[in-house]
Amino acid sequence: MAVYFNIIIPFEKFISELKDIIDKNSVKLYAEYLNDKKGFYYELIDPKSENINFLSEKDYRGFFFSSKVVEVKDGNLVLGKSSKKNRISFYDDELFDYCIEGKGGREDQDNLEIIKLRIISKNPDKQIAKFYNALQNILKKLENVEKGLWIANYFDDKVFYYKTDKHMLSDFSKKETQYLKPD
To answer: Could you count the other beta carbons within 10 Å of the beta carbon of residue 53?
Structure first.
């Protein structure tokens, strides 16, 4: 069973708060894209970059944190000579124990999308599990982060959110599905 953690926070703030634990845990950040011509393709992202803009790409699909270093060659993930395949994904046996999947995080002038994080493996690598726990602990301690929102007629007490005047969305493509603060 996968382990989930959800937070509504501007992605650049999310990454800026995590820079130290990303370095400390030797975790890499990868963006995942999808289009009709290339299929799935990936990019290694530098979390220290001043401008993290991969979320605004038209083909953006999600992101991954990985405690196992993966080479990106022409948009493909390559594990080197030890891999039996030329092209792999983070869901393949060689990688899924080392990964956290991330979805969402897009933002525009009026809206902010939830960031959904999950450890893919039932038995994750110790390093990625430690990073995941540190990530949760840091985000829970941030100023202006609160817990618990309504979505439709369901109160989700496991979602954290950064105080904002923007609409907090479950999915950017379904802008009518919004999280609401409790009264």
So the answer is: 12
Any idea what DSSP says for residue 138?
H
Distance CA 34, CA 126 (A): 30
Tokens representing 73? 């060659």
pTM > 0.85: yes or no: yes
- Residue 93's nearest CA partner among 118, 125, 116, 129 is 125
**One-letter amino acid for residue 8 of the chain:** I
| Paired tokens of 96 | 């899924």
* Residue 150 burial (CB count, 10 A): 15
- pLDDT per residue over 103-136, tens digit each? 999 999 999 999 999 999 989 999 999 999 998 8
Q: Tell me the Ramachandran region of residue 26: left when phi exceeds 0, alpha when psi lies from -120 to 50, beta otherwise.
A: left
